[in-house]
């Protein structure tokens, strides 16, 4: 089945190319017309037996191999034909052809008369001819015969919209009810959360059942927080924790450190009833589990973790030894599910003739839901008995491949040839990879998979959409569970794709250990690899012999964060890519690439080039020699300032995505000649080349997302009308004028221009209007006919005096209004005439200096509003809204205290309150606000300089702020004293310059984390773990503590009472004298300790007493010089050490080498002012950093057994550094050199180290 997958579709394309008039002329002039005719005859003979071969390959390995050989040969033929066509295009652009008419040029290209028959071309042709003849002869040996085309009595009916959706579920009511009861029950357990396992084989419906539970209304009402994570093969504790944090915190935050992430997650979960679904867990490691669930212990009793898994080992280790596995469906339920997907009804009453076949098929599916759904959908358009009998009697049911469910194979077999080809291509995607529909369609097109005959008014992109929707409807694809705009494949479908793709497709996994055979590499056509932080040349070195490779595709496993960086060795770009001349798809999206090599222009077969979110500044001019290029994606390249000049040569370009490129301020030359463009995401009016908006009429198929800049250069609205926006099917539209003074602007013209920019209302999802100079918005802005509009942003429209009726938009979810300086009142005109803002979830107002009044009609408006942000609206005081019942997050900054008082009164459900720079917020006003904060769980106060104290007594705060768990107070300059309420779990107090009294709760039973820095007037001289009044711990549950810039602090005491402490940081406490290091051994949970810049510290510290589980230690700039430290007896758990020297006289690493344990994987040397050289033997060291070491000049060449695992080397502000150990450089993943002029020069392109450092994936050289 693997080899047959693309042949029918592929051969059809080849016949079309071989029969073209252009090829015949080329072949004639090249003298290869005889070979071409032979190929056609041979291929026709082969095509005649394909149906027989497809049937026999299931049981005959020889036939299967014959098909594989034929597929490889078809690829080779296609490459030759593409070579000829590309050469013709090249000659067309490089020869003067003015005397030749367009018609003649198409039939007999000028280039043909100049072709020469190279010896390499002759050899390729002869090899293909010989191989074709061998295959023709072999078909007879294999007994392949021509089968007559059987006409099926197949009465295809069109797909009905009433056919049940794929998510319809049959036969799980009992399981759902039992599990719902289990989720809602407060069953006794020794921790705050319990596990609800759903165990069963792949495809049995574990994820579907978990989805039912997750969306069950009773369950939703019962739990305060929910999160869903697809775990899959790689149990990545950091990645899983990050997804959970983002789900519960509703924010995307960067965490460099796993411990900080777990602390933040624990703070979010604390005291909340929490539901977590861990879907598709494969790990058996109890240690991984224990690491992950650390923060879960803080949640409220009754919290639940649902685990779906095929494997029982981990659950057994957790004490779940008697597991009830999710069973396959009963026969009756299986019949109902199969009928529902095959016939659109859940019984066979109206299709009695099909029922016997249905019963047989259902029996063979063994009640497996995924198989029933997939196979049912493959029969959905077939009502004849013969089609159903064929499925029932197929030999595939006898397949010996235990890894692939036979029913899924049958579903695959029922696909048309081109759908098989498209599905197999998805084998390049790793499991659980979330893919975008539009991007996948562009990849299919680039590979030449969308060449099926289409209606004249159609395009291959529309064909791709139809194919994608067909695969989705048959359950080969599914909607991603947490992102409804992306898609995934079920694990079993991914396995199926991998099995049918066979050797034509290779997916390099990050943990792949196998060595690929030379023969396999030479034949490989499509390759993907999972993007990881550092990608080395070694990973791909063997691919230099993969001369026929067409696809070089970077994917990603897990959830991709915007802050993540990925580094690719430049050697891959410079040395490898030129060795892959047949590439059609090249995607290096997301890598930190700053330069694209000139060799890119030699990849003349390239159709798809994706450099999005890289750091490239320009593209080489010879990119325009890629005549076949259809898709060029450079979106998010924020350093890109220039595109090549000869864009007019890219006649085949259909998609150009240059969105989010702020330095790109003009359109490429010749862009208007590219009549096939469908995507042009950014349009700059004017510029050096004077692009006119009317020229957009040339792009009749323009669709998708568009950003138009420079609209102030439009002189007449008629030019916009000529662009015909009303007929363009846009999903996103952003329009912008310059910020030039509004006095010189023509507000009437700008309104007319904006009016003419109205797109078709069918598809628009996002609308952004920037710096519009009209007095009011045209009627289409806010028109309820835009049924799909979800995001609207109006920014810096400084002359507008009123807002458009955006409340009429039925699906609007996010609304951002910023910089509308002339708006004084927001009232009924904003709401419209119908039910206002029924779907709005996020509303933000910013920089509206004249806004004074916000009024609405009586009753509830904003029924779904969850987040409200008002920033820099200092005049807004009068608010007549009656209630904001669903607002959970309220942020107010640079506003009047009257606004704060009013909003907090009507938003009774607020759980997260952030306030900043509130004028008039004094002690009296704050007390009035505080009484409405009973539901608030997180409170952040910043730069409120009129407050002297938040509450006078801890008892007062504890009585009102009953749910407050987290409190952040920043830069409140007049705050004099602070008393921490007993309910607080996380406290941050920062840069409050006047505060003198800081009091923690007497009992402190809830306090988990305390961070105090920048409050240098605090009078307290002691800090520690003991309550002096009752000889008990004052913070018995404290886990994280940071103290910085506490000038008066003299001593830290009684650390042994803080038995739960995991991180402790003390920095820049100049007068700290006493630290009880003898108690550190009692802190058995402490993993991170930092004591830096405390120059008065008792000279006896440190004495070699350390916590037994310490992993990270940062220490130095103390009273005792590091050179005077005795051996420290560090625990073997210590892996990261940061030493801070100061002016302690250390000139040689031999003075502290005795302090470096062999367990270290990371070492930082900071501010050793006299240190000149460094040489140690640390075999496990992976990361070595030097900072502010002005006399450091070399790293001697290490012994071969030393530093053998070093991967990361970093120098900052080491001006005399000169020499690097060359033996270490080839193995580095990162080398960073900052403010080291000599070393920077040696590592630059003309320096002596350049050949060694240039292949390093992350090389940073900065002044």
From TrEMBL:
<dbReference type="GO" id="GO:0043531">
    <property type="term" value="F:ADP binding"/>
</dbReference>
<dbReference type="GO" id="GO:0005524">
    <property type="term" value="F:ATP binding"/>
</dbReference>
<keyword id="KW-0067">ATP-binding</keyword>
<dbReference type="GO" id="GO:0051707">
    <property type="term" value="P:response to other organism"/>
</dbReference>
<feature type="domain" description="NB-ARC">
    <location>
        <begin position="190"/>
        <end position="341"/>
    </location>
</feature>
<dbReference type="InterPro" id="IPR056789">
    <property type="entry name" value="LRR_R13L1-DRL21"/>
</dbReference>
<dbReference type="InterPro" id="IPR032675">
    <property type="entry name" value="LRR_dom_sf"/>
</dbReference>
<dbReference type="InterPro" id="IPR036388">
    <property type="entry name" value="WH-like_DNA-bd_sf"/>
</dbReference>
<comment type="similarity">
    <text>Belongs to the disease resistance NB-LRR family.</text>
</comment>
<dbReference type="Pfam" id="PF18052">
    <property type="entry name" value="Rx_N"/>
</dbReference>
<keyword id="KW-0547">Nucleotide-binding</keyword>
<dbReference type="GO" id="GO:0016787">
    <property type="term" value="F:hydrolase activity"/>
</dbReference>
<dbReference type="InterPro" id="IPR003591">
    <property type="entry name" value="Leu-rich_rpt_typical-subtyp"/>
</dbReference>
<keyword id="KW-0433">Leucine-rich repeat</keyword>
<dbReference type="Pfam" id="PF00931">
    <property type="entry name" value="NB-ARC"/>
</dbReference>
<dbReference type="InterPro" id="IPR002182">
    <property type="entry name" value="NB-ARC"/>
</dbReference>
<feature type="domain" description="Disease resistance N-terminal">
    <location>
        <begin position="10"/>
        <end position="97"/>
    </location>
</feature>
<keyword id="KW-0378">Hydrolase</keyword>
<feature type="domain" description="R13L1/DRL21-like LRR repeat region">
    <location>
        <begin position="693"/>
        <end position="819"/>
    </location>
</feature>
<keyword id="KW-0732">Signal</keyword>
<dbReference type="InterPro" id="IPR041118">
    <property type="entry name" value="Rx_N"/>
</dbReference>
<dbReference type="InterPro" id="IPR027417">
    <property type="entry name" value="P-loop_NTPase"/>
</dbReference>
<feature type="signal peptide">
    <location>
        <begin position="1"/>
        <end position="21"/>
    </location>
</feature>
<dbReference type="Pfam" id="PF23559">
    <property type="entry name" value="WHD_DRP"/>
</dbReference>
<keyword id="KW-0677">Repeat</keyword>
<protein>
    <submittedName>
        <fullName>P-loop containing nucleoside triphosphate hydrolase, leucine-rich repeat domain superfamily</fullName>
    </submittedName>
</protein>
<keyword id="KW-0611">Plant defense</keyword>
<dbReference type="Pfam" id="PF25019">
    <property type="entry name" value="LRR_R13L1-DRL21"/>
</dbReference>
<feature type="domain" description="Disease resistance protein winged helix">
    <location>
        <begin position="428"/>
        <end position="497"/>
    </location>
</feature>
<dbReference type="InterPro" id="IPR058922">
    <property type="entry name" value="WHD_DRP"/>
</dbReference>
<dbReference type="GO" id="GO:0006952">
    <property type="term" value="P:defense response"/>
</dbReference>
């Amino acid at each position: 089945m693997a080899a047959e997958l693309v042949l029918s579709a592929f051969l059809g394309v080849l016949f079309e190319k071989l029969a073209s008039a252009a090829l015949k002329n080329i072949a004639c002039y090249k003298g290869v017309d005889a070979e071409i005719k032979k190929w056609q005859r041979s291929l026709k003979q082969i095509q005649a037996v394909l149906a027989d071969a497809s049937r026999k390959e299931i049981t005959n390995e020889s036939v299967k191999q014959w098909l594989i050989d034929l597929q490889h040969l078809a690829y080779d033929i296609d490459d030759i034909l593409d070579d000829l066509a590309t050469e013709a295009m090249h000659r067309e652009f490089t020869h003067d052809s003015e005397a030749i008419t367009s018609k003649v040029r198409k039939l007999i290209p000028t280039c043909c008369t100049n072709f020469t028959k190279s010896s390499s071309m002759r050899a390729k042709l002869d090899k293909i001819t010989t191989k074709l003849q061998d295959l023709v002869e072999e078909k007879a040996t294999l007994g392949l015969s021509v089968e007559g085309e059987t006409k099926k009595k197949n009465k295809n009916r069109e797909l009905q919209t009433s056919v049940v959706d794929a998510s319809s579920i049959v036969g799980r009511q009992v399981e759902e009810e039992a599990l719902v009861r289990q989720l809602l029950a407060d069953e006794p357990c020794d921790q705050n959360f319990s596990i609800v396992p759903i165990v069963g084989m792949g495809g049995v419906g574990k994820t579907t059942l978990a989805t039912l539970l997750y969306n069950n209304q009773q369950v939703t009402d019962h739990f305060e927080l929910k999160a869903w994570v697809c775990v899959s093969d790689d149990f990545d504790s950091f990645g899983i924790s990050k997804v959970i944090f983002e789900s519960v915190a509703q924010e995307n935050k960067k965490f460099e450190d796993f411990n900080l992430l777990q602390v933040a997650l624990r703070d979010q979960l604390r005291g909340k009833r929490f539901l977590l679904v861990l879907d598709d867990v494969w790990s058996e490691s109890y240690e991984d589990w224990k690491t992950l669930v650390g923060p879960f212990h803080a949640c409220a009793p009754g919290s639940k973790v649902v685990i779906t898994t095929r494997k029982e080992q981990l659950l057994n280790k957790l004490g779940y030894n008697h597991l009830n596995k999710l069973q396959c469906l009963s026969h009756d339920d299986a019949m109902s599910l199969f009928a529902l997907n095959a016939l659109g009804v859940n019984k066979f009453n109206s299709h009695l003739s099909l029922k016997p076949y249905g019963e047989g098929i259902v029996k063979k599916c063994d009640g497996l839901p995924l198989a029933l759904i997939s196979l049912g959908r493959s029969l959905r358009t077939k009502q004849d008995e013969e089609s159903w009998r064929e499925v029932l009697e197929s030999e595939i049911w006898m397949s010996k491949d235990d890894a692939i469910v036979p029913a899924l194979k049958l579903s695959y077999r029922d696909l048309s040839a081109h759908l098989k080809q498209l599905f197999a291509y998805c084998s390049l995607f790793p499991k659980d990879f979330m893919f975008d529909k539009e991007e996948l369609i562009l990849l299919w097109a680039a590979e030449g998979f969308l060449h099926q005959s289409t209606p004249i008014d159609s395009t291959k992109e529309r064909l791709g959409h139809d194919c994608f929707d067909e695969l989705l409807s048959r359950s080969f694809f599914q909607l991603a569970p947490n992102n409804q705009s992306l898609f995934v494949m079920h694990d079993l479908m991914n396995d199926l794709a991998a099995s049918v793709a066979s050797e034509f497709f290779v997916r390099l996994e990050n943990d792949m250990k196998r060595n690929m055979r030379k023969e396999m590499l030479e034949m490989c056509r499509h390759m993907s690899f999972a993007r990881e932080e550092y990608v080395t040349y070694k990973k791909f070195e063997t691919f230099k012999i993969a001369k026929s490779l067409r696809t070089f595709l970077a994917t990603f496993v897990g959830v991709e964060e915007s802050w993540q960086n990925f580094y690719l060795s430049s050697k891959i770009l410079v040395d490898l890519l030129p060795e892959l001349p047949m590439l059609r798809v090249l995607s290096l999206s997301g890598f930190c690439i700053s330069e694209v090599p000139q060799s890119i222009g030699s990849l003349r077969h390239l159709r798809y080039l994706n450099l999005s979110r890289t750091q490239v500044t320009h593209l080489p001019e010879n990119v325009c020699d890629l005549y076949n290029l259809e898709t060029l994606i450079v979106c998010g390249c924020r350093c890109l300032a220039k595109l090549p000049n000869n864009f007019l040569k890219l006649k085949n370009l259909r998609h150009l995505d240059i969105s989010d490129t702020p330095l790109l301020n003009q359109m490429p030359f010749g862009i208007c000649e590219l009549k096939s463009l469908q995507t042009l995401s950014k349009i700059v009016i004017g510029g050096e080349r004077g692009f006119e908006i009317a020229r957009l009429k040339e792009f009749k198929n323009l669709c998708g997302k568009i950003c138009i800049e420079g609209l102030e250069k439009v002189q007449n609205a008629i030019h916009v009308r000529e662009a015909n926006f009303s007929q363009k099917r846009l999903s996103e539209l952003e329009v912008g004028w310059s910020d030039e003074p509004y006095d010189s602007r023509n507000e009437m013209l700008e309104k007319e221009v904006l009016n003419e920019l109205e797109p078709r209302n069918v598809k628009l999802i996002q609308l952004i209007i920037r710096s519009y100079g009209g007095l009011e918005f045209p009627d289409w802005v806010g028109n309820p006919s835009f049924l799909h509009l979800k995001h609207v942003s109006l920014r810096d429209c400084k002359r507008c005096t009123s807002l458009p009726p955006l409340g009429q938009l039925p699906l609007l979810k996010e609304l951002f209004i910023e910089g509308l300086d002339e708006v004084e009142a927001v009232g009924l005109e904003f709401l419209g005439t119908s039910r206002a803002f029924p779907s709005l979830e996020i509303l933000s107002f910013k920089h509206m200096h004249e806004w004074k009044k916000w009024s609405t009609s009586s009753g509830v408006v904003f029924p779904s509003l969850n987040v409200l942000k008002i920033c820099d609206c200092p005049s807004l005081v009068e608010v007549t809204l009656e209630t904001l019942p669903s607002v959970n997050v309220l942020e107010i900054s640079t506003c009047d205290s009257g606004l704060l008082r009013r909003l907090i009164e009507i938003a009774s459900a607020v759980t997260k309150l952030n306030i900043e720079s509130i004028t008039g917020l004094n002690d009296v006003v704050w007390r009035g606000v505080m009484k409405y904060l009973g539901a608030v769980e997180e409170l952040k106060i910043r730069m409120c300089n009129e407050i002297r104290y938040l509450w006078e007594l801890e008892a007062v705060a504890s009585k009102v702020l009953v749910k407050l768990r987290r409190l952040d107070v920043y830069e409140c300059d007049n705050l004099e004293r602070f008393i921490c309420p007993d309910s607080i779990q996380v406290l941050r107090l920062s840069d409050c310059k006047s505060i003198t009294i800081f009091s923690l709760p007497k009992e402190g039973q809830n306090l988990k984390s305390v961070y105090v820095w920048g409050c240098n007037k605090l009078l307290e001289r002691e800090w520690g773990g003991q309550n002096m009044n009752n000889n008990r711990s004052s913070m018995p549950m404290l886990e994280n503590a940071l103290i910085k810039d506490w000038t008066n602090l003299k001593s830290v005491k009684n650390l042994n009472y803080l038995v739960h402490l995991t991180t402790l940081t003390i920095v820049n406490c100049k007068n700290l004298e006493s630290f009880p290091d003898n108690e550190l051994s009692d802190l058995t949970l402490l993993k991170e300790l930092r004591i830096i810049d405390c120059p008065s510290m008792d000279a006896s510290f440190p004495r070699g007493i350390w916590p037994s589980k310490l992993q990270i230690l940062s220490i130095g700039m103390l009273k005792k010089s590091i050179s005077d430290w005795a051996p420290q007896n560090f625990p073997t758990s210590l892996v990261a050490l940061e030493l801070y020297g100061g002016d302690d006289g250390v000139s040689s690493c031999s003075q502290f080498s005795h302090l470096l344990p062999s367990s270290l994987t990371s070492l930082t040397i900071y501010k050793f002012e006299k240190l000149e050289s460094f040489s140690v033997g640390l075999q496990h060291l992976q990361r070595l950093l030097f900072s502010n070491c002005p006399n450091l000049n070399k790293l001697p060449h290490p012994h071969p057994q030393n530093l053998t695992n070093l991967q990361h080397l970093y120098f900052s502000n080491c001006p005399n550094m000169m020499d690097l150990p060359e033996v270490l450089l080839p193995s580095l993943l990162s080398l960073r050199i900052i403010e080291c002029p000599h070393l920077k020069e040696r590592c630059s392109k003309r320096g002596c180290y350049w050949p060694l450092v240039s292949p390093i994936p992350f090389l940073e050289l900065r002044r």
